[in-house]
Amino acid sequence: MTDHDVTVRDADLDLLRKRVSAFVRDRVYPHEPRLDTGGPAARELRGLLRAEAREAGLWALPLSAELGGGGLPLRAYASIAEAEGASDHGPAALGSASLSDVTMLSRHGSPRVRSEYLRRLVSGELRTCYAMTEQGVPGTEPLLTATRAERRPGGGWTVTGRKWFVSNAADADLVTVLARTSGTAGDRGGLSLILVPTGSPGFRIVRDLPVLGATGQYEIEFDHVDVDEDHVVGEPGQALTIAGERLQLGRTLRALRWVGQAQRAFDLLCERAVERQGARGPLADRQLVQLHVFESLLALRSARPLVHEAMAAVAEGRDAHVEVGLAKTAAARTLQEVADRAVQVFGAAGLGPDTPLPALFRTGRTARILDGPDEQHVSSVARRVLRSRQPGPAVTPA
């Protein structure tokens, strides 16, 4: 590979990022209020946007080319993920929302699962969700999972239990559920991931769980749902290993998208400061507004390198617990902080329906809890760092 090749490829990637950014800005932003409401109208609109993305050659860019995706490597996709994620609806409209699930099932799904589902997931024909958290059980304590999967006499499993705060469950065709297949609550072994078709008898949506007024999270129930043996993801008992692998990629992707949304809030802040005229001139001349600009830019430029470092570690297959913990926490805090400062500069207009700022702030605030609370990541990263500083066993001189 020559330096000239690298320059051309970087230029191509930059052009692709600009095309994705333009698509999200021109085609997705205007429809966000309708997409936020969910339901049949939102699904129809999402389908139209997906058709436009395919026609534009922007569909499923980071997914396997063999399965119908764009084949873009993870490290190259990082800047694209920011552009897509500037809207919560960008990844779904552009076909990359299934990346975590497709990666997990490609690596750990049975031959039948890979054959029946992967290509249809990449095409957007099927949608998935991931069910891990349970009411009354801390999300940071998966060992206490109460949902169970019992072996059927004729083969396969019967799943019983409830999960909540499951994203996009109402539109999903498949749900990957964390269930105990052996042992008792608290045992480290005996947890498995099982892929359940949502059309199965006994599966139901219990209720919508609005988050700060926004739909998209659900409580679901498995009432003795029968699932085939080959719908276990990996081997029984491997859930924590596979889920940890999945979470590292998923959290990094979400962190990239949160940085993209923080950049969007920052751009709105700056535009407002320059354009808004008061009795004493533009807001941009006020020192306190300049402070909002400075602190927001500082947060953005501090978070972005951490997130891209995490993506590089995940793409290389390294143990990225520290990098991902730093990235997830920094990106979530940055989105909340920058959106909050933008709201402050907009004043009352930033609280109403005429800007995306309420939604951006809501995403930032919930991101600090729903994808692993800040406290979990702070403790996990600190423990790992301190363990690495522990002195090794004493060596007896020869």
Automatic annotation (TrEMBL):
Keyword Membrane appears in the UniProt entry: no
GO molecular function: oxidoreductase activity
Cofactor(s) for this UniProt protein: FAD
Highest taxon of source: Bacteria
Ranges of residues in domain Acyl-CoA oxidase/dehydrogenase middle: 129-225
EC number(s) reported in the record: 1.-.-.-
Subunit text: Homodimer.
UniProt similarity note: Belongs to the acyl-CoA dehydrogenase family.
The protein's name in its UniProt record: Acyl-CoA dehydrogenase family protein
